[in-house]
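Exercise 3.2. Students should predict the tertiary structure of the chain below and write it as structure tokens, then compare their answer with the key that follows.

Predict this chain's 3D structure.
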Amino acid sequence: MLPQLLISGIAVGCVYTLVALGMTILFRSTTIVNFCHGEFFMLGAFGVLVPLQLFGWPYPAAIATSLVLLLVVGSITERLLIRPLKNAPFVTLAMMTVALSFFLKGVSRFFYGREVVSLPPLLSGDPIELGDFATLFPQDLLVIGFTVVVVVLLAIFFARTRLGKVIQAASQTPRGASLVGINVPLLRNVMWAAGAFMGAAAGILIAPSTLVYPDMGGTMLIRAFAAMCLGGFGSLPGAIIGGVTLGVLENLVGGYVSSSLVEITAYLVIVIVLVIRPQGIFGEWKQSRV
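Answer key:
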């Protein structure tokens, strides 16, 4: 039982990691916590569902359309809603992202109500038996593999590429970056688009394993936020460790304690971390706009 719970927890935790990474790269480059990131996750799933249901598109075309759509949504969000408030206090920016969250959720409810819809699996095939201890489904293997690829690419981008270093430098000293000729607004726009893309990718990956409905983003936002709290805000390793740890912890709690406690595990993690180590595992004490 334990090996199966661990493997399933890692697969679910990889989805949490993807969502947390989307929020982390945005925070790392703009110092803004995006409270509507859960709705980007939800829109990614609906972006696949709608072309499949209404137009009968093939899966690859629907996925590509959804990802491109969320790139555009992220870019427009930054340009029209966030950039005009660039000098506003954090509370104003936070309320803007919260308002956008409710708006996007309301639009999806207008068209779908509270209908719950399923998506076919991205990968079909027989489960992979790992001896007599556990079973790995093709969908889980896809989620884990995609997460590993994304993590490696992000690590290389921020640590090894000039653009990645420029983005981090621009987030720390925007005025100084502007004075040396760096287009800070463009970089922030790109990172908002990238964050939305990451949220959409996570929504597409998890939708076949769960269900698609307008409120699915709120639950995922809490879990991603818990993963960031656990790992440390702005830390890519923290988002990875936090997401996987939370997924495994939820499965262990559901398997050995009570399934009714799974829904509150993320809240408990947030409370415990804030009491014991507010900066998270990989975080550092510093003044920042979060």
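Discussion points: Residues 2-214 form one domain. Residues 99 and 164 are 30 Å apart (CA to CA).
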